[in-house]
User: Fold this.
Amino acid sequence: MSERAVRLAQAGGPEVMQIQAVEVGDPGPGEVRIRQRAAGLNFIDIYQRSGVYNLPMPSGLGMEGAGIVEAVGEGVTHLKPGYRVAYASNPIGAYATARVLPARCVVRLPESLSFEQGAAMMLKGLTVQYLLRKTLPQGGLQAGDFVLFHAAAGGVGLIACQWAKALGLRLIATAGSDAKCELALRHGAAVAINYQRDNFADRVKEITGGEGVKVVYDSVGASTFEGSLACLRAFGLMVSFGNASGVVPPVPIGALAAKGLYLTRPSLFQHLSSREATQAMADELFSMVHNGSVKIEVEQRYALDDVQQAHRDMESRSTTGASILLLN
Ligand SMILES: NC(=O)c1ccc[n+]([C@@H]2O[C@H](COP(=O)([O-])OP(=O)(O)OC[C@H]3O[C@@H](n4cnc5c(N)ncnc54)[C@H](OP(=O)(O)O)[C@@H]3O)[C@@H](O)[C@H]2O)c1
Assistant:
């Protein structure tokens, strides 16, 4: 039976995404076939579609989804047909009604979570897990510490606001409008700065009494990088994990010297290198949702046929929180 999937023949604007009929075969050894209910929309999809990150063409798109297992290949023991599952992983190709992928990337979705939530939380929630729990400054983070989190009203951002609050951190949010700042505050940010209007580095200095923050989590990239370094206190950690405004130009290493700063450029997919690591991170995310610390809300839903509009909305900064594609 043929399925429907987004395919790209080359990199470019949203119009390069075309829906095509595709054949999805049986899973091979170590693989699983999933009938997908929903796929997550993520900013990484935009980097890949537009050519900021190079994909071998032709290609599918999408790295996050949820659905029901239809078939498992030889050697797969943790999943069975009929299981509800979710994932954030390579290979690319989540914008599809059904797909085959390595079973080690796929976890069972707790009954209490909908497929929509599964598709909205895996890539974004596991990212927040590794950022706030594993990407830490010297001496770690303690309750009461200030951290700065850019684009805090976005998909990753709203989960980070909630998780940081549960850890007792004082998360200083930035966002591109007053309404987005309000949203970040409602999700647990201690303070919010509209960085389209105010100089965020000056505001952070005021808020922290001149000291600066222990960590900056910066996914905005080119337009914020320099200001972010200025927000850090001595021996602080700069976490550059995205480039929504453009790729960060090469950094002269001496820029870190005055304050003895640490700089890292992490990727979720390094953290998901084994089935055990993926499951452990997912278990922690699911427990944060179960105990009520983190609520997973879907702010924008799109039909597969409207995928081009979904990308236009994300790129133009008109979305907040998580966006998903509805598939079956
Ligand atoms: N390295 C990793 O492991 C990893 C994993 C997941 C996500 N990420 C990164 O985390 C970021 C958030 O991902 P997401 O999927 O949740 O997206 P998102 O935050 O929902 O959307 C990106 C946000 O970036 C802000 N932004 C600032 N300048 C922008 C510009 N010039 N153009 C477009 N947006 C701009 C916008 O918020 P404002 O209007 O409020 O500024 C926009 O809503 C992305 O950069 C993504 O690549 C990295």
In short: The chain has a mean pLDDT of 98. The chain is about 30% helix and 25% strand.
